[in-house]
Specification:
Shape: globular
Helix content: 25-40%
CATH class of the domain at 161-294: Alpha Beta
Function: Catalyzes the phosphorylation of D-fructose 6-phosphate to fructose 1,6-bisphosphate by ATP, the first committing step of glycolysis.
CATH architecture of the domain at 161-294: 3-Layer(aba) Sandwich
Distance between the termini: 27 Å
GO molecular function, one term: ATP binding
Organism: Aquilegia coerulea (Rocky mountain columbine)
Protein name: Phosphofructokinase domain-containing protein
Domain Phosphofructokinase: 171-401
Largest sheet: 5 strands, mixed
CATH topology of the domain at 161-294: Rossmann fold
């Protein structure tokens, strides 16, 4: 039988003392942290809870200003502005070679429409729901009135013009951090796509960033033939490694190898390193494009429909859920507890729970909850035991992170 461990803590914080109220919006947060638990030293039952009515509230925006929407949109546009080679170099683009044979000549007959490419000015709407009230389910409001503000982001896809001569390009691919389902699939598709463009000089950097400065590691030549069946194997064809490295050494290696495009697969730390590499290349005025592919099975990237490895994670999670269900169902008043990955988001836990159809309680970081009280998780479990005889709980590892807020704001007892 599994059980929920109690968390002890005391205190009540005032949001205004910690600058949580944005200017012109004094009711965006309500936050309280009160002790709960069942130890001998702490006998009171209470809880730690948070209600956020405006997740996007910006303390720098004066909502009394009639032009605040324009100000917000301009700041949003800056946040998602994309660096371009033309920022540093005066390059004349050339006609794309992407699937040119399949698309035929660029010339079109009168009246014929050709919709094969994405325009540089194309944008897609980030949020498509207009919430009428901050109290609407799932509401994410910017101001107290939950005003509609358009947030546009760049549209992905092949462009009609490109800025490299494919036949002269050398592309590098590197996988960093830990292993993740789908790494070989991503490597394979990058090679396939580069091949479609006409890029033939493609190499893999072995064992993460280490491959740039470790003299004993050599480049791995990649081609369509080499990567054809690597998607059938797990792990990474190129190998992975962790640990920091000198940005200067890495860029020296990139320069010495004459790499024009570098595709980096990794997580938070890897992307921080990739950004440092990009900045160093700009500083040296090197014509190098650094392309990052987020490696996270949590599916927690804002502008992506789905991250690679997520489907596999959900599928594997259901095996653990099925086992927990059998254990709980077979035991007297059994409770099965399954903890899944999801430090900041509960997509794996939610999708696995919905897919299995065997979960009674699903706890995720995005939704605050109380353990105790008349509507708490423990009370609900008690009712499930009385009515069903057993229960299964699925928990994302970051669920209940309100406690971390209590720690951050120095609530006594944590």
């Amino acid at each position: 039988m599994a059980f929920v461990s109690p968390v002890s803590g005391v205190g009540l914080i005032n949001p205004e003392q910690h600058g949580l109220h944005p200017k012109g919006y004094s009711s965006s947060f309500h936050f309280s942290c009160i002790k709960f638990g069942d130890s001998k030293r702490h006998t009171k039952n209470s809880r730690c809870s948070m209600v956020v009515r405006s997740s996007d509230a910006n303390p720098d925006i004066d909502f009394s200003d009639p032009d605040w929407k324009q100000q917000y949109q301009e700041e949003f546009e800056k946040r998602f502005s994309l660096p371009h080679l033309n920022d540093l170099f005066d390059i004349n683009p050339i006609q794309t070679t992407f699937a040119l044979k399949c698309r035929g000549s660029d010339e079109t007959e009168p009246g014929e429409r050709k919709n094969g490419y994405v325009n540089d000015d194309d944008r897609t709407l980030l949020k498509v729901i207009k919430f009428a009230s901050p109290n609407s389910a799932g509401a994410e409001c910017i101001d107290p009135d939950c005003s509609w503000v358009e947030q546009w982001i760049h549209r992905a896809g092949p462009r009609k013009k490109i800025y490299y001569e494919p036949g002269a390009v050398k592309a590098g691919i590197v996988t960093c951090g830990g292993l993740c389902p789908g790494l070989n699939d991503v490597i394979r598709q990058i090679v396939f796509t580069l091949d479609i463009y006409g890029v033939k000089n493609i190499v893999g950097i072995p064992f993460g960033y280490r491959g740039f400065f470790d003299k004993s590691l050599s480049e791995i030549p990649l081609s369509r033939q080499v990567v054809q069946n690597i998607n059938l194997a797990g792990g990474s064809l190129l190998g992975v490694s962790r640990g920091s490295a000198s940005t200067g050494e890495i860029v020296d290696s990139i320069q010495a190898r004459r790499i024009d495009m570098l595709f980096i697969l990794g997580g938070n730390g890897t992307h921080a390193g990739a950004h440092a590499i990009h900045e160093e290349c700009r500083k040296r005025k090197l014509k190098v494009s650094v392309v990052c592919v987020p490696k996270t099975i949590d599916n927690d990237i804002l502008l992506m429909d789905k991250t690679f490895g997520f489907d596999t994670a959900v599928e594997e999670a259901q095996r653990a859920i099925n086992s927990a269900y059998i254990e709980a169902h077979s035991a007297y008043h059994g409770i099965g507890l399954v903890k899944l990955m999801g430090r900041s988001s509960g997509f794996i836990a939610m999708h696995a729970s919905l897919s299995s159809g065997q979960i009674d309680v699903c706890l995720i970081p995005e939704v605050p909850f109380n353990l105790e009280g008349p509507y708490g998780v423990l009370k609900h479990l008690e009712q499930l035991i009385q009515t069903k005889g057993s229960a299964v709980v699925c928990v994302a590892e970051g669920a209940g992170q309100v406690r971390e807020f209590c720690l951050y704001f120095g609530v006594v007892g944590y």
